[in-house]
Amino acid sequence: MRVLKRVLAVSALTVPLVIGAAGLASAHGGVDAAWGQGFFTAGPDGAGVAGAESSVSPEGVSHADFGIWSDDEGVTGGFTGSGATLVNG
Q1: Is 10 part of any domain?
Q2: Would you say 85 and 60 are in contact if contact means Cβ atoms under 8 Å apart?
Q3: Cβ neighbours of residue 39 under 8 Å, at least 6 residues apart?
Q4: Residue 57's closest CA among 18, 29, 89, 19?
Q5: Does the keyword Signal apply (predicted)?
Q6: Is the pLDDT confidence value at 3 over 90?
Q7: DSSP 8-state code for residue 27
Q8: Which of 14, 30, 58, 62 is deepest in the core (most CB within 10 A)?
Q9: Does a structural domain hold residue 14?
Q10: Which pLDDT band, with edges at 50, 70 and 90, does 5 fall under?
């Protein structure tokens, strides 16, 4: 049962991880770039997942990171996010 809970927790949390990519924006000459990284583990001592992402686009900038760990003692985790919208004018 512990293994099932760990697998479910890791599976549910890996879905939102972003695979990083970068490129140039459209003909408007703006910048559009993104970066992402993720990690997960499951073993006899527990299961965990962590991820981070950052992006810059003509609409603004953003950054987020998170981590979560599950073991015999329970589940712990944290999240940090920030962003700004660019205003023309």
Answers
A1: yes
A2: yes
A3: 49, 50, 51
A4: 29
A5: yes
A6: no
A7: T
A8: 62
A9: yes
A10: low
